[in-house]
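Meet the record:
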Amino acid sequence: MNSNVLNAERVGFVTTPPTVAGNLPKGWMPASSITEAEFLSLPRPRERCRFSNLSRTTLVELLDRGVICGVTIRRPGAMRGKRLIVKKSLADYLYSLAERAGRKVGVGTEVAS
């Protein structure tokens, strides 16, 4: 067992690995549902996000501008890596767009155009 996990348990913290939804290599970890995930993978090129239906390009632009939060996982010295989006930041951004447009949005409520 990882020494960080042991130290956390000794202090009284219970830690679990974060969950990710969408586009994971087969066999990497059990697929979790989008509702349970803390992080979202970027969709493949020419595909759309299962959570927001936004394109990969739009999501990358939002990440680069700092509008939504994300992390990049890569090995030291590597040029390429895996970009993950913090799902809560994407949801908060979408809710802010609806509020700016003057629409009331809640959980389970669809935004009418």
About this structure: The chain has one domain: 3-100. Helices lie at 3-11, 56-65, 87-100. The chain has a mean pLDDT of 77.
